[in-house]
Amino acid sequence: MAMKIDPDECTACGDCATACPNEAISRKRAYFVVNAEKCDECEQQESPQCQGACPGNCIEFL
Ligand code: SF4
Ligand code: SF4
Which of 6, 13, 33, 55 has the most CB within a 10 Å radius? Predict the structure, then answer.
């Protein structure tokens, strides 16, 4: 499992990429994307760090 970023809502601020402990998020053109092979849904944390960091609330579970 992994997270998914809604490209229509993402403003490419980069906050999610900074928050991700697995370096699973990177920029793709005008928005950011999650690498599903690296994302473990933050199983070592209480909740997905990217979701908490996103000001646009545009990251959901796949
Ligand atoms: S859930 Fe965690 S590991 Fe997955 S993309 Fe978000 S911050 Fe990174
Ligand atoms: S924190 Fe949200 S708005 Fe910012 S780059 Fe990530 S998904 Fe896009």
Answer: 33
